[in-house]
Specification:
By secondary structure, the protein is mostly helical. The protein has helices spanning about 5-40, 50-70, 75-95, 100-120, 125-140, 145-160, 160-175, 185-205, 210-215, 235-275, 280-295, 300-310.
Length: about 325
């Protein structure tokens, strides 16, 4: 008697000889299926996938955590809620009645709004736009990278806004944190926003862009009183006017930076065309000369110094 493998091979050979290659392949597949049914040990057993294992572990973790939470006494959970609800809004906003839960909530809110505050009310807009235009004027594509430009702009912003931040802390944050001062949240907001408004109005006035305030002031309700000083301008008008003024100043500074590099590009393009090198990009030749010129004149020192001086005296 022939072994199963020899018998299967012989059967497949006979089928191939009788019906051609297609019949032989079909008969061989049928033989393999029959052999698998006859020998179940060859069929691999079904194993639980990683997805089901992860689901089981996650479900068990939720059950354990739920049991732990339910096992705690309800008094500790309801005590904080009762103290917050019974006190009313005055207890929520007072320095002494502010619980740790609300402090965490306020901290997360401030952190989520920090990028918008940094862009709208500080010197970040002017600095980052000028540095971006400088990179385009040099023609270095992505050098320095965006992270380097943003980091430099943030550090310069911290330096420029340090006096304003100190005034905000001394006039609003420190008195509001002191329970004996009896300062309300509205009073703290007014006192804290005043140094920022004065900084923005000073930059608008120095740039000669006071007409931007009138542009946005026309869209306030008709019964809004006309402002006598910059301190009377509402914050919803001063913020867009300040950003528009900063964009104007940044583009003017960028034009001054662009001009010498543009002249260098024109000279290099004229030389390459006169020499008949039409297929050679002028930017490729002018880039080393731009870098050499920028390094020789200490360009980074000049640009950063010009940006710092454009904001006036810091202290």
């Amino acid at each position: 008697m022939k072994p199963p493998s020899v018998a299967n091979n012989a059967t497949a050979f006979e089928a191939t000889a009788a019906g051609g290659p297609s019949a032989g392949r079909g008969r061989a597949a049928a033989n393999r299926a029959a052999a698998n049914r006859a020998n179940p040990a060859r069929v691999p057993a079904a194993r639980p996938t990683l997805r089901w294992v992860t689901l089981a572990v996650f479900t068990g973790t939720l059950l354990v955590a739920g049991g732990t939470v339910c096992a705690q006494p309800p008094a500790s959970a309801t005590g904080v809620v009762d103290s917050l609800l019974n006190g009313g809004p005055d207890a929520w906003t007072s320095p002494g009645g502010l619980s740790s839960t609300l402090q965490v909530l306020l901290l997360l809110t401030v952190l989520s709004l920090a990028p918008a505050i940094l862009l709208m009310t500080t010197s970040f807009v002017r600095i980052v736009v000028v540095l971006g235009l400088l990179r385009q004027a040099l023609g270095t594509q992505q050098l320095p990278p965006n992270q380097v430009i943003t980091s430099l702009a943030i550090f310069m912003t911290l330096l420029i806004m340090a006096p304003v931040g100190k005034d905000v802390y001394d006039q609003a944050i420190a008195p509001y944190s002191n329970p004996r001062s009896h300062m309300t949240l509205e009073e703290a907001w007014q006192a804290g926003s005043l140094p920022i408004k004065r900084f923005m109005s000073r930059q608008i006035d120095a740039a000669g862009n006071a007409e931007d305030i009138h542009l946005f002031y026309r869209y306030l309700p008709p019964d809004t009183p006309a402002p006598k000083t910059f301190d009377d301008v509402p914050l919803q008008v001063l913020l867009p006017a300040y950003m528009l003024s900063e964009l104007k100043v940044a583009f003017l500074i960028g034009f001054q930076i662009y001009l010498p590099f543009l002249i260098l590009d024109i000279v290099v393009a004229s030389v390459t065309i006169s020499m008949g090198m039409l297929m050679l990009p002028p930017v490729m030749i002018s880039l080393p000369f731009k870098l050499m010129l920028f390094v020789l004149v200490d360009g980074w020192h000049l640009v950063v110094g010009m940006l710092l001086e454009s904001f006036g005296p810091i202290y």
